[in-house]
Amino acid sequence: MSQQRTPKKIIPRKTPIPEQDPKVRSRNFDEVSLGYTPESAVQEAGRCLECPKPTCVSGCPVQVPIPAFIKLVKDGKFKEALDTIKEANLLPAVCGRVCPQETQCEQRCIVGKKFEPVGIGRLERFAADWVMQHDLAEVPAVAPSTGKKAAIVGSGPAGLACAYELAKLGHSVTVLEAFHEPGGVLLYGIPEFRLPKKIVGTEIDLLKRMGVEISLNVVVGKLLTIDEIMEQYDACFVATGAGTPKFMEIEGEELNGVYSANEFLTRMNIMRAYSPEFDTPIRRGERVAVVGGGNVAMDSVRTALRLGAGEAIIIYRRTEEDMPARREEVHHAKEEGVRFEVLAEPVRILGRDGAVSAVECVRMELGEPDKSGRRTPRPIKGSEFRIPVDTIIMAIGTNANPLVPQSTKDLALHKWGYIIADENTGQTSKRGVFAGGDIVTGSATVISAMGAGRKAARAMHDYLMGQPAVSLR
Fold it and tell me: Which of 42, 182, 198, 217 is most buried (most C-beta within 10 Å)?
């Protein structure tokens, strides 16, 4: 007689993760979340059902073997858990902190059908942090040299992921980075309290130890072109991102005190405005309004608080439920005292003596759904109102970085200036030139950019070895 399996009793909610007190953290740049202890990580890993047919992996753009690494955490084998993650993901300490797991792997978790899903991101972060703390990180194995050379343009998540995979396959890889430090948006776009610079540096250092060369202060499209790169390398991957800011094109945007989120966060990160040791030229507003509802908007408004703002306000034209920002980031912002003005849109910026003094907004209502399925906001006539502010940060998205597209012949582009590339291989219209990440898709997530880099690396390997391109999926 066959033995029936006893149903596992599941703890309904995720194991709590300690955080800094909101009143304290809103005035410092230390990390908000303090991470799991070994005991709490084992407890959370124990919530996993070890499904015979797991669905969580299908939600991960880089295909991390999630059930396998969680089982290792549950068994207390933390280093082995990280080694398993590293089979697919170069940056687990980064992804565990900033990836939107709630709409990706955790959304597919079977436990999440009745209870809170397993904290996959929290466990990924724990494994990476534990190995770092115990100095147990090992350099991934690298295949014998193929004699082929590949250039990666940009050291953001897509470029780093592509470099990682190509290096493992035995190719000589050089990353060309425009800034004076590698990391791309991980370094200049995400604030210290959400992703410490030390974490990014440690992850990138592992790449260098694999033999990847990183050349800094190389602005491709100005100092040299893709055609010149292809004279020296056998293949090239373009991962320059979408860093050109968008503005609303309303009256008053030329006033002093109006920033793009890109400029504001770059000054804060690269020029270290978060540290009192550096006299960074950045406006430390008393009343700051941030326009937008995504993660960049949350990063900007919470940064403004930490720089000393007495009041920090989010202005968003839809409802809070419509915000694309992670729920956790919205929750943290509210805890820290950020004011939310939803169903409102700026129509002009008012100034005094050349500087911002107020923003005039109009109330919005939601109409019929648009192509994305979200209801279209429309202004309510006669509902204008003003908010006194001295600083405004526009966090309404970005456009394609134009340097490579404008300086490269025979490179097919979308009408918005993004590079056209095959979804599964990253191959562009130019032989030997591949592309991925935000320069292809527009602004997206760190992990989706990494997924694009990983797919492209596989296709580039096939190209370099004279084989037909094979997709990862």
Answer: 182
